[in-house]
Amino acid sequence: MPHAVVTGASSGIGEAIVSRLLEQGWRVTGLSRSKVVRDAPAFESVCVDLSDSVALADTLTTLPGPDEVIHAEGMMAAAPLGKLTADVSQQLWQLHVLAAETLVNHFAPQMSHGGRIVIIGSRTSRGAAGRSQYVATKAALVGMVRSWAAELAPRGITANVVAPGATQTPMLNAPGRSSSPPNMPPIGRLIEPREVAALVGFVLSADAAAITGQELVMCGGASLK
Q1: From CA 129, how far away is CA 177, in angstroms rounded?
Q2: Which pLDDT value is given to residue 125?
Q3: HEC-encoded secondary structure of the chain
Q4: Could you tell me if 76 and 13 are in contact, meaning their C-beta atoms sit under 8 angstroms apart?
Q5: Per-residue pLDDT, 223
């Protein structure tokens, strides 16, 4: 039974990924700040604040090595120039970039041929007005994952970013994004978390062994504008 570690397991995209993997017969360790209760013997909930790098590093030492690592935990913050704060920048960097680095730095040396690393990014990684702090972290993830992909390719381990556009998750209603509401994509609806989970599922599959170092965008056509 393959084993995956999934962050952000309590809601949104992370929750959808956990559900999909369990349906496919995986063993899943879900990391989140709050306890997740599921009627699934193959699921283990581990409570940890991913923005606390010391606590995260300590927690990882208690977990068995996974076949796949999926970092889906995230937060949104939006502010125009003149309103940017160092505290928000640090929170975003810790949760998106440093947490991903901590996870992969710990687990990658233990992973075997066929292992997968998937980081949930954002289609805004190329830039979005009023979201520079958030965008900066998502852009950093792309460069970091591409570097990991080059390093891990000889070992048969892939690393990719799955970058959705506006997705129907609780993050859409986060207070920190009130100054920059989501735009409806050309398909006329928001992306569903299960759709993102399906793309992640493919990237984890044996059929995706030749896909590595990529930013795979799912945006409902928003990038066509």
Answers
A1: 12
A2: 87
A3: CCEEEEECCCCHHHHHHHHHHHHCCCEEEEEECCCCCCCCCCEEEEECCCCCHHHHHHHHCCCCCCCEEEECCCCCCCCCCCCCCHHHHHHHHHHHHHHHHHHHHHHHHHCCCCCEEEEECCHHHHCCCCCHHHHHHHHHHHHHHHHHHHHHHHHCCEEEEEEECCECCHHHHCHHHCCCCCCCCCCCCCECHHHHHHHHHHHHCHHHCCCCCCEEEECCCHHHC
A4: no
A5: 81
pTM for this prediction:
0.93
Q: Which domains can be identified in the chain, with CATH numbers?
A: 3-224 (3.40.50.720)
Its sign, for the CA torsion 192, 120, 154, 112, is negative
The Cβ of residue 121 has, within 10 Å, a number of other Cβ atoms equal to 26
Mean predicted confidence (pLDDT) in 205-214 = 98
138 closest CA partner among 121, 123, 152, 116? 121
pLDDT for 180 beyond 70: no
Closest C-alpha to 44, from 56, 32, 54, 53? 32
Copy the structure tokens of residue 103: 């996870």
Provide the annotated active-site residues.
134
Read off the pLDDT band of 222 (50, 70, 90): confident
- Return d(Cα 73, Cα 70) in angstroms, integer: 9
Residue 162 has pLDDT above 90, yes or no: yes
How many CA within 13 A on the CB side of residue 180? 20
